[in-house]
Amino acid sequence: MDELFSSGKIRNLGVSNMDYHQIKLIEAYTGRKIIANQLELSLKKTDFVDSAIGFNNPHGKGLDFQLGTLEHCILNNISLQSWSPLARGIYSGAKLDKDAHQTILDTKNLVTRLAKKYAVSSDAVVLAWLMKHPAKINPVIGTTNPERIKMQCRLFVSL
Ligand SMILES: NC(=O)c1ccc[n+]([C@@H]2O[C@H](COP(=O)([O-])OP(=O)(O)OC[C@H]3O[C@@H](n4cnc5c(N)ncnc54)[C@H](OP(=O)(O)O)[C@@H]3O)[C@@H](O)[C@H]2O)c1
User: Residue ranges of the alpha helices (H) in the chain?
Assistant: First the structure.
């Protein structure tokens, strides 16, 4: 790691799919600060919200998100990046499986209604939900389609 930094090949360290214990361990061993953590955060993967609400509550049982990770990242200026922020378009236009769960259909309908109401794309509504979170989540969108990127950006100016 030191060689990568001294040779200029990398300037910063980021991690992916790590909880705050793992981040602290890496920082202690490398003596360097982690600046970003990329996690699956989306309307499909809402555990990062549900785990906080469900703490000390029967509804929180079985959730797959290490409580304290979001808070650690916020307090230590570790940028939170969301991978698959659009859940590959399942709420905004991608073809759904025949046996798609009712919650996916309900969420998709709500997204469609909001997109109509605010005259924006459904993609923009899905991304806006993420970006309204106080943790200042940065979505890492996966499309390489310029038109889709433009439509996804349209809401950002009014956030
Ligand atoms: N760190 C990790 O563990 C991890 C895991 C998974 C992914 N990633 C990274 O995260 C980035 C984003 O992941 P992702 O590609 O899953 O993100 P995403 O933005 O949620 O999904 C992109 C896919 O969804 C489709 N899509 C988006 N909006 C759509 C719509 N309205 N209608 C139909 N299709 C729509 C795109 O199709 P088009 O291509 O046709 O536009 C594309 O195939 C990638 O760079 C990936 O490498 C990281």
Answer: 2-6, 20-30, 47-53, 69-75, 102-118, 122-131, 146-153
The residue contributing the CA closest to ligand 1 atom 13 is 84
Ligand 1 atom nearest residue 83's Cα: 10
Global model pTM greater than 0.90: yes
Paired residues of 14 in beta bridges: 36
> What is the chain's pLDDT, residue by residue, as a tens digit (159 residues)?
999 999 999 999 999 999 999 999 999 999 999 999 999 999 999 999 999 999 999 888 888 899 999 999 999 999 999 999 999 999 999 999 999 999 999 999 999 999 999 999 999 999 999 999 999 999 999 999 999 999 888 765 454
86 CA → ligand 1 middle, Å: 7
